[in-house]
Amino acid sequence: MLYTCTPSPVGDLLLAGDGEVLHRLAFTPAAPEPDWRRDDGAFAAVRAQLSEYFAGDRQEFELELALEGSEWQRRVWSALREIPYGETRSYGELARGLSSVSASRAVGLANGRNPIAVIVPCHRVIGADGGLTGFGGGLARKRTLLDLEAGRLALV
Hints:
The protein is α/β, with parallel strands linked by helices. The chain contains five helices and six strands, in the order ββββααβααβα. The strands form two sheets. Strands 3-2-1-4 form a four-stranded mixed β-sheet, with no helix packed on it. A two-stranded parallel sheet has the order 5-6. Strand 1 and strand 2 form a beta hairpin. The chain is globular and about 45 Å long.
């Protein structure tokens, strides 16, 4: 597994993959696994698309992703990718969309285990009352990403 860290307007991001497919995008201080090899020349397409996103010029990512998790987690992560840029959904709305009306807590747990932040937009999930709720990158980052997508903030 290759990795690098790249700067962004919301802090440094850890990128990891096999050279072809992105396996992880995490907010630092996430650390690489001991057997990963640093390659700062890798992930050019990921970096370019993230730069376009943060500049407000990209609304959808066109990258090959390896989303490794349970069948339920992969269903939730797929549903996250269906939330349009600039929009949000509640945990309950996602659960209903997955035909599991009572599974909002399970949606939240899967959301929290999303291995590819930003690109798989877990930041677009909010509480039933419209309030910001848990986010692995912190609520300030979540607010920043939502403000960017709503056109209320220019990051670059």
